[in-house]
Amino acid sequence: MISRLLIVALVGAVVALPFFAPSHIVFLVAMIGSTSVMVAGLTIVVGFTGQISIAQASFAAFGAYGTAQLAAMAGLPHWIGLPGISLAAAGVGYLFGLLSLRVADHYLALATMALCAIVQLLLIHLEDWTGGAVGLPVPPLEVGTRILTRPIELYAVIMPCAALTIWFLHALSTSRIGRAFAALRMSEVASAAVGIPVLHYKSFAFALSAFFGAFGGGLFALLTTYLDPAQFGILESVRLIAIAVIGGVLNPFGPIIGSAVFVLLPETMGALGRYMALVFSLLLLVFVVVSPQGIAGLYSRLRAWR
Amino acid sequence: MNAAALKIDSLGIRFGGLVALDAVSIDVAPRSIHAVIGPNGAGKSTLVNLVTGLYAPTTGCVTLDGQVLTGLPPHRIAERGVARTFQNTELFTDLSARDNVLIGLHRHLGYGLLASTLRLPRFHRVEREASRRAEELLSLVGLEAQATTSAGDLALGQQRRLELARALAVGPRLLLLDEPAAGLRAAEAEDLCSVLLRLREELGLTLLLIDHVMRVVMGVSERITVLNYGRKLAEGTPDEVRRNPEVIAAYLGGGPDVA
Question: I need a surface site. Which of A39, A185, A218, B256 has the fewest CB within 10 A?
Fold first, then answer.
């Protein structure tokens, strides 16, 4: 009941916000929305399925550069290009997941990290395609003849996507597919023994993760209007994992909670802002030790305790 | 559900220099309860892991109703109707007892990502049916009151019964039970015996039972195979096995190869 009320309040706040908040706040909340979509992919692969991926920034780059260049080079409107490139990313993610047949645990972490490093190098060196180290301007979102560039317009596009993503996570976790992911997280041997094709489901988790990584990356690109390869390295992958963990990796709202903390905290810290990396590292450590289920986990623990 | 005949044909596996199982052949008749006993390290669990595809054998082959299982990945073997329990329970410990059984039902639930995301009527229908089936299986093993308890919080005897319910959810024709009675109190072991007999009578399952606990093994099995040091030492009815001098030597010591 309280959860329902909270959700209604949250939706109400998101709808009402652009009517009274200044435009830079609207921009920040849209940033929370696009970040949460990228993080949702990690919630699936790291949280639900228990695999490790330090390549989420690469899938975000795939979506961001892909949607930008499909528009710039092929003239494909974003509303086709973004879902299209995200589906393509899902295919790549599935193939990448097949890797987990050969490598597991920390070796998988290293393999995904290597992928991330390679993709960033490609972004820098394939200048004809990516604009190289200088970066790449992102053509604006066009709907019909209207060009959407104002924060409030992008907000109206991004927030529904974020809401649908939360719904997707909820629906997934309460379906047979989500249960199979949870089974994999806890015992691959027992999963196989009850007839769950382990490799297929792991790869499927990576595919979904890549889809949301790319989709969120594309939304992020529309919002920032300029892409810089420095934004898509291993550190960004780690940052996305930290957001997922602090928000809570087993809760559909985890990504949005974590993204809110990571986007808003630097804004409110003023001069302390340059110690942000330190603050986030400490936050991550505290949560890993005190509440591995993140902020969302604190909430359900509180409810159980009352 | 038609019962299945399991044929294990000169199955062997070596780990490095150690021959864990050496050309063991066992025929399990359809709808029978066949026990495999033997001292620790005799290769009993190895046998289960070979039949279920967890290990690949070095020699020999396993067939179920004439279909070759050897070489198939474990989930394919499960699809052919082979389910198992584990010696040191392998439950999904953070999940509720009901979710454990629902995961066992996984391959019977026919809906995809789209139906689940859009919550189509099909999703609700299949999930409702699955919940009903899960409740049934939980009450079959006497865990209906524990449906929402985390598997990890159950007592050992309850965990073993939950594993049984999960294995039954797979819809097996052949059920392999790896030491289901280990660590159970006498009364719990009695209950287990009656459950095993019911499974055979009511569901027509073929059971391959691995255990130490003689009361259970002697009480329910039609045939017993005795393994020792990875080899088949003896095979026969419970009475034949009980009287076999080699078996007595292996169990009580005194044989020439006992250290």
Answer: B256
Torsion of CA B119, B124, B130, B131, to 10 degrees: 100
A183 CB within 8 Å of a chain B CB: yes
Q: Quote the CA–CA distance of A149 and A69 in Å, as a whole number.
A: 18
Look up residue A145 and give its two tokens. 């003849």
Nearest to B144 by CA among B182, B98, B112, B109: B98
- Among positive and negative, which fits the CA dihedral A161, A49, A90, A259? positive
B56 neighbourhood in chain A, CB within 8 Å:
none
Backbone angles phi, psi at B11, to 5 degrees: -80, 130
Kindly report, residue by residue over A197-212, the tens digit of the pLDDT: 999 999 999 999 999 9
Residue A38 neighbours by CB distance under 10 Å: 31
Domain topology for B1-81+172-259:
Rossmann fold (3.40.50)
Q: What is the ipTM of this complex?
A: 0.91
Domain locations in chain B? 1-81+172-259, 91-171
Q: Which two tokens stand for residue A32?
A: 């929370």
Q: Specify the pLDDT at position B258.
A: 40
For residues A203 and A90, the answer to whether their CB atoms sit within 8 Å is no
- Of the candidates B107, B109, B108, the residue with the CA atom closest to the CA atom of residue A195: B107
Asked if A17 reaches chain B (Cβ–Cβ under 8 Å), the answer is: no
Mutate which: B54, B75, B123, vs A, most A CBs within 10 A: B75
Pairing of strands B223-228, B33-37: parallel
Which positions in chain B have a beta carbon within 8 angstroms of at least one beta carbon in chain A?
52-54, 73-75, 78-79, 83-84, 86, 90-95, 99, 102-104, 106-107, 109, 111, 113, 116-117, 119, 123, 130, 166-167, 169-170
- Tell me the chain B residues in contact with residue A167 when contact means C-beta distances shorter than 8 Å: 117
Q: What is the Cα–Cα distance from A192 to A199, expressed in whole angstroms?
A: 10
A186 contacts in chain B (CB < 8 Å)? 91-95
Question: How many other C-beta atoms are found inside a 10 Å radius of the C-beta of residue A169?
Answer: 26
Tally the residues of chain B: 259
**What pLDDT digit, counting tens, does each position of B195-240 carry?**
899 889 988 899 999 987 777 888 899 999 999 989 999 999 999 9
Residues of chain A found within 8 Å of residue B109, distances taken between Cβ atoms: 176
CA B83 vs. chain centroid, Å, equals 6
Comparing C-alpha atoms, which of A292, A87, A86 is closest to residue A185? A292
Closest listed residue to residue A263, CA positions, set A239, A231, A237 = A239
Question: Are A114 and A50 in contact, with CB atoms under 8 Å apart?
Answer: no
> CA A269 from chain center: how many Å?
24
Distance between CA A215 and CA A64 in Å, rounded? 8
